Amino acid sequence: MTRPQDILRPDVLAMTCYPVPDSTGLVKLDAMENPYRLPAPLAAELGNRLADVALNRYPEPRPAALIEKIKRVMQVPAACEVLLGNGSDELISMMSTACAKPGAKVIAPVPGFVMYAISAKFAGLEFVGVPLNADFTLDADTLIAAIEMHDPALVYLAYPNNPTGTLYDSADMERVIAAASKSLVVIDEAYQPFAQQSWLPRASDFDNVVVMRTMSKLGLAGIRLGYLAGKASWITEFDKVRPPYNVNVLTQATADFMLDHLDVLDAQAAELRAERTRLEQAVAALPGATVYPSAGNFLLVRVPDAATVFETLLTSRVLIKNVSKMHPLLANCVRLTVGSADENAQMIAALKLALH
Ligand SMILES: *Cc1c(COP(=O)(O)O)cnc(C)c1O
């Protein structure tokens, strides 16, 4: 009889699944989701559109019209091509797979987005994390030294970074891009709707840069659609490792529809940016809380005891993320997603309880 432990990779056997807590009945402020639904008339119109979709057919593998629309609406430079992924998670996975030569490495600042390391590990790449400064700004000198030492295939820069919310200094980023002339630098702009700053207009100015975006944080986390913009020489190669029908027909139709109604999502993002400012001020006024500047739809907050804060909020039926065990620099830090005004008020009330 064959057992999994006889044939599976030892590192897979030793792993645990990506943890997603049960959020039933909770105010869900742990995963940077947009709290707002579509306005009912728009949702109904989308429903009609989706009813017309041919579910019996495979999706278009490279949906040209949708890609053209993304290029136009998102102002992708003319010299760039676009690759679609089932979320940016899948784009990260494709890049890892395509770069997984024996001994190849991936470098990213830490603490950062966990999928860079997880995806590297799945593909058999070595992940090297380079610590940020204590204030979560980029330690560009150390990062550059690590790039020179390890000669990585991929360097990830999340702009802004998750879970810290930091928007790295542009001059630092330029130095890193220049130092990584033998690597591909992936600038991850998942939070662009909240940062309102972007490297996308410059994506074709460099031979070694691609820019990754997603619809997830903009209010469409459920459809799973990410896109990667860069020179055709990169996009053509990554396209080869794309699973043939990776973006399903309902996602393609929804994205096509929503790109014509982006004003709705943009208005929601604007509301969330205003809520972020209000939340930041309210949390900063609480005893013992240190809030870090954030360009995302979330705030990183250091508290006296993160475990107690997490549990007290859960008792108040508010789910946040305790990131304190992710990295030593995050000791006693929690990450709060910016929700609706109501949700944020509930979170603040619960935080007051927890911190007094
Ligand atoms: C949330 C997030 C993503 C989005 O991943 P999707 O698979 O597109 O939902 C990508 N990068 C960072 C840094 C994120 O925080």
From TrEMBL:
Pathway: Amino-acid biosynthesis; L-histidine biosynthesis; L-histidine from 5-phospho-alpha-D-ribose 1-diphosphate: step 7/9. The modification N6-(pyridoxal phosphate)lysine is found at residue 217. The keyword Amino-acid biosynthesis applies. SUPFAM superfamilies: PLP-dependent transferases. GO terms for molecular function: histidinol-phosphate transaminase activity; pyridoxal phosphate binding. CDD domains: AAT_like. Gene3D superfamilies: Aspartate Aminotransferase, domain 1, Type I PLP-dependent aspartate aminotransferase-like (Major domain). Residues 28-350 form the Aminotransferase class I/classII large domain. One of its GO terms (biological process) is L-histidine biosynthetic process. Its EC number is 2.6.1.9. It catalyses: L-histidinol phosphate + 2-oxoglutarate = 3-(imidazol-4-yl)-2-oxopropyl phosphate + L-glutamate. Homodimer. NCBIfam families: hisC (TIGR01141). PANTHER family: HISTIDINOL-PHOSPHATE AMINOTRANSFERASE, HISTIDINOL-PHOSPHATE AMINOTRANSFERASE-RELATED. This is Histidinol-phosphate aminotransferase. It comes from Caballeronia sordidicola (Burkholderia sordidicola). The gene is hisC.
